[in-house]
Amino acid sequence: MFENLSEKLQPELSEIYRYLHTIPELSFCEYKTSEYIGNKLTEYGIEFNVLLGTGIYADIKGNNSGKTVLLRADIDALPIDEKSGVDFKSKHKGCMHACGHDAHTSCLLGAAKLLNAIRDRFNGTVRIVFQPGEEGDGGALPMINNGILNGVSAAFALHVEPLEEAGNIQVKYGSIMASPDEFEITITGKGGHGAYPHTCIDPILTAAMIVNAYQTVVSRNIDPMVPAAVSVCSIKAGNCPNVIPDSAYITGTARSLDNETREKLEYTLEKIAKNTSESMGADCEFNFKKLFPPLINDKKITDITVNAARKLGIGVVWLERASMAGDDFAYFSQNVPGTYFKLGVGNKKRGIIHPIHSPEFRIEESALHIGSAVLAKSALDYLAL
Ligand code: NI
């Protein structure tokens, strides 16, 4: 029943997707996107509320009071110049929906329409949440701090995956995305003439020693069977070939799939930066910015999505490994049992093979109604438990 309903939605979902694709907006600046979502909900007869300026949520209430389940889509875009070749490309120069959040928004609008049409046929409430700022510092935590999870007992979200064929979803128990934390280090030495290094405290050499030592953080501190990644991604120091500068600045990312490893990475990175600087006579300021926790899928809630997809005739692919990318849906599933699944949007025959965050990223649009159907049926099956 759901499959037929959602298939009928496909042309409308494509239209929504293509429009949103033309108006990508960066984190917490999703004003046009948010207005469009609100207009669509009004058209569907769904009352909504605005949170954090551009976030939107709405409760679709069924027959009787019962459990409340949350469905979440992120709505922001990336600072990338689009090179996808589609004829509905971004009209916002330097900004692109290269992570498919326009598709997530379309899928959730579709799910809202499906659920609202049958709300006399289920008990409980489905809270739909359009969350801003996932690519930035994260809109999930401030939404939760504003009470978005009040009364909620389970949460579902999807993310597009162009490396999986349209028609399938990917699922996993346990950790599926990493904590994508960041570190920054300012090393302050003593500048001077490159001819007289003995009168200086060289921050560049200190930085180089720290970067080298960081290669041991994972290889010599973390169990080889436990995933972790440390990458130094920028160094800034000096601007003249014969002057040793006063300071050097390093930034990087530290990622893990569990909280124990996360703590160990922070501790070890700080210790190495400070001790190496001290041994060189330099000062060191170390900041570790905890972005999102690891995203952990609940087994029982994941099974609901797996069974929902199978009943809809959608292929279910079990992921063997988590990704070392992050998603702040982690905050939802840290507070209530949840699952985050990947929606296949690839089509090798049509050349739709570019990964998310690529300027050439695009999707097989026929997957949109599948996303709507799996979200809606997961919510209904959870409420019926
Ligand atoms: Ni994304």
Describe the protein in words.
This protein is an alpha/beta fold and 385 residues long. Helices cover 35% and strands 27% of the residues. The protein has helices at residues 2-22, 31-44, 101-117, 140-145, 203-221, 259-280, 299-311, 329-335, 368-383, and strands at residues 49-51, 55-61, 68-74, 125-131, 152-165, 168-171, 174-177, 179-188, 192-193, 228-237, 243-244, 247-256, 283-289, 295-297, 315-318, 338-346. The strands form four sheets. The chain has an eight-stranded mixed beta sheet. A hairpin with a 3-residue loop joins strand 1 (49-51) and strand 2. It is elongated and about 80 Å long. The two termini are 19 Å apart. The mean pLDDT is 97. Nickel (II) ion (NI) is lined by residues 99, 101, 159.
List segments where confidence is low: pLDDT < 50 over at least 5 consecutive residues. Answer: none
Percent strand equals 25-35%
Mean pLDDT: 97
Outline = elongated
Ligands (ions, cofactors included): nickel (II) ion
Using only C-alpha atoms, the radius of gyration works out to 23 Å
The percent range for helix content is: 25-40%
Q: Helix/strand-derived class?
A: alpha/beta
Q: What is the strand arrangement across the widest sheet?
A: 1-2-4-3-5-16-6-15
Our count of helices gives 9
Count of β-strands: 16
Note the main sheet.
8 strands, mixed
> SSE order in H/E notation?
HHEEEHEHEEEEEHEEEHEEHEHEH
Distance between the termini: 19 Å
